[in-house]
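Blinded run. Sample ID left blank on purpose so nobody reads anything into the name before looking at the predicted structure. Input follows.
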Amino acid sequence: MRIEKLNHADPGVRQRLMDYLAPHEPHALFILGNLVADFPESHLYVAVESDRWLGVTGYYAVPKSLVPFSRDAEAVRRLIRHVVALHPEVRYIIGIDYAAEPACDEVFAMGYEPANQPRTIFMECEAPPPRQPHQELCRPMREEDLPQVARLIRHLRKEIPLDDPVVRESELALARMAALRHVLELDGRIVSIASTNGKGVSAFQILGVVTDSNERGRGYAGAVCASLYHDMARQGVARCVLFTPDDNLTAQRCYQRLGFRQTGMFCVAKLRPRE
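Blinded prediction complete.
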């Protein structure tokens, strides 16, 4: 088995990636969506035996995220050892459980440790939900929304204090990176957001759902997710996936009301070097 870096700007390589991942689309939407959307600073690697692909891993430099996909655990381990040696600044491993768990085991053996509880519920929906209460308050994000959106993203990343008055350029850059983000605006304030990294082949994923802590319990998250879902459906994409912490029953009930059902487990592991 050997590891190769892919030139995903090459049309032939790009098509082979799409063909390899398409049969597993719901579980590979980070790589597929980022590929289609030309996500900046993407680095893609493949494990190859003879001419047969055994697995693919993406490293995305701005969020410092590593996304493995393979049903072959040894291919995942080989990919992780190779990619982390090249990109030791990795801070997240994200992926479906059968690919992400051997990846986590490998990075822990390489001197990293978990900074969170990584297990999440993986959910899927086959059709857009009915229109939700408060959906009239939702719309696509605009450039002038970025500072407020960046502050909401702090709830997710938990790296900058929520009340820090300074919004950093790095935060604004991260807020810009979603292929599409919808916001719920209430009296001039952005109080809830949901995003996607874009269409894969025939599906998309909802990411980064967060509501201001003072505005929770009012149905805003469901409204902004439905707004985003309807926008993607107008672009011809009806199938959607998402993931949410397995101990967040409120979020799970919210997504169930939209028509999502649990179909597996997902991993979002935050990493830090072991001291």
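Unblinding after everyone has recorded impressions. The longest strand covers residues 261-273.
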